[in-house]
Design goal:
binds calcium ion, alpha+beta, 9 helices, 5-stranded antiparallel β-sheet, globular, SH3 type barrels, single chain, about 425 residues, Fumarylacetoacetate hydrolase, domain 2, 2 domains, 26 strands
Length: about 425
């Protein structure tokens, strides 16, 4: 077992019962404070962040033997590049330092602990490339049946994890506002397109995995080795403009309907910390080709939810889903992505695709929840939502829970601002 994951551990830092960040999580992020605006690496415990640069400066991390600069980097990439054994060593050491049985760091805590609400969390990764999959059978069937009632799943869907190359430049950290995109749409019944702000702005509830080990161009990552190349996971909101999408997507797929913004959680939770939540995924029928066949449990039981909060304070939790519903798992996605010799780099992100479950309240987008706007949802003040309004904030949360230990991702939030030229 990974030492840091020991479920009997408790921290001398208070961890509220509903916290995403017990001592068994120890995710990684990048932050700064008003008094010290230099970005640096951190982890989380309870309602606090732990400044790793300061911990290191105080010689508390000497045993891990990392270059000092790693802790004051702008991004996590160089830490991730050291490889899983080294990062495991760091997580284990952090767990020891924060363990209630050890008081070597406790008296100095005021140097390195900051209340989470007093710091600014920054985009933690330098993302070179971003790919988005389409791997939930329920989502693909829902969307397919709206647009092609007689033929919802295309013939390739159960043979390969369908995906497309997205845009890394517009991936932003939780809390960054999102401007309503403008673009071309074809109004219903019209023969000519019009230009204007999207009327059908949507979220897509996803998880994204972070590539933690590169493969050289011309080589591939096998499905058995794939998890060794996956550093960790983040919450991911693939913001989508449905009216722009439906006009532009044939024949080459999503373009401007998707690349205006994607929101990630500030925390990368390591795959190590998620080990307790492994479960078997759905049975894959028909059998997949040998390069996609795998052994063992490769799905993860992580509860997911989406809340919409209006600018007047009305809100509603509109979706309860779970990462375990994915038809294609991450190992298969990475094996497929590289099978042609495509090289992946550290910090690359792969979105899961919208994670919809079997019940109508588990659908991971407004498109599905309101069935293209035909069944509006109600917020707490009685106002209706078919899609996302200006001034609304979309909040995604995710966590696993086993034996009273909850390992979570914090939040991925984004507030929608009116179109720039409106
Ligand atoms: Ca998506």
């Amino acid at each position: 077992m990974i030492k840091a994951n020991d479920p009997t551990r408790k921290s001398w830092v208070e961890v509220p019962a509903d916290s995403d960040f017990p001592i068994q999580n120890l995710p990684f992020g990048v932050f700064r404070t008003q008094s010290n605006p230099t970005p640096r690496l951190c982890t989380a415990i309870g309602n606090n962040i732990v400044d790793l640069a300061v911990m290191n400066f105080m010689d508390l991390l000497d045993d891990v033997e990392l270059d000092n600069e790693i802790y004051s980097n702008r991004y996590l990439n160089d830490l991730i590049a050291l490889g899983k054994p080294k990062v495991r060593q760091l997580r284990d050491r952090l767990a020891d330092l924060l363990d209630e049985k050890n008081d070597e760091a406790k008296d100095m805590a005021w140097h390195f602990l900051h209340p989470m609400d007093k710091v600014e969390m920054l985009m933690p990764l330098q993302v070179g490339d971003y790919t988005d999959f389409y791997s939930s059978l329920e989502h693909a069937t829902n969307v397919g049946s709206m647009f092609r009632p007689d033929n919802p799943l295309l013939p390739n869907w159960k043979h390969l994890p369908v995906g497309y190359h997205g845009r890394a430049s517009s991936i932003v950290v939780s809390g960054t506002p999102v401007v309503r995109p403008q673009g071309q749409t074809l109004p219903q019944g019209a023969t000519q397109p019009v230009f204007g702000p999207t009327k059908l702005l949507d979220f897509e509830l996803e998880m994204a995995f972070v590539v933690g080990k590169p493969n050289a161009m011309g080589t591939f990552v096998s499905v058995e080795n794939a998890e060794d190349h996956i550093f960790g996971l983040m919450l991911f909101n693939d913001w989508s403009a449905r009216d722009i999408q439906s006009w532009e997507y044939v024949p080459l797929g999503p373009f401007l309907a998707k690349n205006f913004a994607s929101t990630v959680s500030p925390w990368v939770v390591t795959l190590d910390a998620l080990e307790p939540f492994r479960v078997a995924g759905p049975v894959q029928d028909p059998q997949v080709l040998p390069y996609l066949q795998f052994q063992g449990a490769k799905n993860f039981d992580l509860k997911l939810e989406v809340e919409i909060a209006s600018k007047t304070g009305a809100n509603a939790t509109v979706c309860h889903s779970n990462f375990k519903y994915m038809y294609w798992n991450m190992a298969q996605q990475l094996a497929h992505h590289t099978v042609n010799g495509c090289n992946m780099n550290i910090g690359d992100l792969c979105g899961s695709g919208t994670i919809s479950g079997p019940t109508p309240d588990s659908f991971g987008s407004m498109l599905e929840l309101t069935w293209r706007g035909s069944k509006p949802l109600k917020l707490s003040d009685g106002t209706e939502r078919k899609f996302i309004n200006d001034g609304d904030t979309v909040v995604m949360r995710g966590w696993g829970e086993r034996n009273g230990i909850r390992i979570g991702f914090g939040e991925a939030t984004g507030k929608v601002l009116p179109s720039a030229n409106k």
